[in-house]
Design goal:
This protein is of the alpha+beta class. It folds into two domains: 87 residues, 2-Layer Sandwich (Phosphorylase Kinase, domain 1); 143 residues, 2-Layer Sandwich (D-amino Acid Aminotransferase, Chain A, domain 1). Helices cover 31% and strands 24% of the residues. It has seven helices and 16 strands. The strands form four sheets. Strands 8, 9, 12, 13, 14, 15 and 16 form a seven-stranded antiparallel β-sheet that branches. The chain has a five-stranded antiparallel β-sheet with strand order 1-2-3-7-6. A two-stranded antiparallel ribbon has the order 4-5. Helix 1 runs parallel beside helix 7 and helix 4 crosses helix 5.
């Protein structure tokens, strides 16, 4: 973002600007892996995250409300109008929410850290699963595995449902689990019809005027594991449309996952950008047309 745009808060990917009653949320091209922000941006990534989130907010609105007010630069306050072209395609004006201090993760397939844990103990985040499952296998039903929300530079930690209930209250925890699985199920069915398997994903929720709402981003390549359905074959790792491609390269580099991260090669940056755009186009059925400068 331009140096004149000074965010009120800065996340791993998003910059937030406090507008009083609303927040201006801007998705940058930054990418993080293993809770470390990398130095190398991924071209168009912020626009893909924003446009895909907008698609899902609309598709899921009958299940759960969300915080979106507008993604039109014409609705920016006057003092931001000079940056309208730069913000186009990557901005959302959203209502403020009291965000719950947990990540709501839903897993439909056995992958990543879940697969590693299953190999060791037959469980995923402490939940017992049937014996004999292979890597990337579809689970009998989606499971809810919450985690903490770590500060930048720290790692999220898986927590039990009971611990989540202590943090947000038992009734709220039950409702968040119910909503998370409902949203994942709807999205998985839609994405599968468009050739993508959503192996797992994470949501954030908050209270707006006393009502639970979906906030932040939703079902993007940053927050989800996307696999091509036409080549899906359990028993091994799957190619992906998400930042797992970057994670895999970082792991093969010998990096110890503490800052600073190694510099990404140009071909890794280019292929990652292509994967993000391809995921958007497959899920939405629309061509990706960049807007911002």
């Amino acid at each position: 973002m331009a140096p004149e745009l000074r965010p009120t808060a800065r996340g791993k990917v998003r910059d937030l600007f406090d507008l009083g009653d609303l927040l201006l949320m801007v998705a940058t091209d930054r990418i993080s892996a293993f809770d470390v922000i990398l130095d190398d941006p991924i071209p168009y990534k912020g626009e893909v995250l924003t446009k895909l989130s907008l698609f899902w907010f609309d598709s899921l609105a009958d299940i759960v409300p969300n915080h979106l007010v507008s993604a039109d630069p014409c609705d920016l306050p006057d003092e931001y109008m000079n940056y309208a072209d730069e913000l186009a395609g990557r901005m959302m004006l959203v209502r403020k929410a009291d965000v719950f201090p947990v990540e709501c993760i839903v897993r439909g397939y056995l992958a990543g850290s879940g697969w590693k844990e299953y190999q060791a103990s037959g469980t995923v985040c402490g939940q017992q699963l049937p014996a004999g499952l292979t890597e990337s296998a579809q689970l009998p039903e989606p499971i809810f595995t919450p985690s903490t929300k770590a500060e930048i530079g720290e790692h999220d930690e898986n927590i039990s449902f009971e611990r989540m209930a202590e943090l947000v209250g038992a009734q709220t925890a039950e409702r968040l689990r119910e909503l998370s699985i409902a949203v994942y199920t709807r999205a998985s069915e839609l994405a599968r019809r468009h050739g993508i398997i959503i192996a797992d994903t994470k949501f954030e929720f908050g209270l707006i005027d006393g009502e639970i709402a979906l906030v932040d981003e939703v079902l993007t390549p940053d927050s989800s594991r996307f696999w091509p359905a036409d080549s899906y074959e359990p028993g091994h790792g799957q190619p992906s449309f998400d930042k797992q491609f970057v994670r895999d390269w970082l792991e093969s580099s010998g990096w110890d996952k503490t800052p600073p991260a190694p510099e990404l090669p140009e071909d890794i940056i280019a292929v990652t950008a292509e994967k993000y755009i391809e995921a958007y186009e497959m899920i939405t059925g629309e061509p990706f047309v960049p807007e911002g400068d």
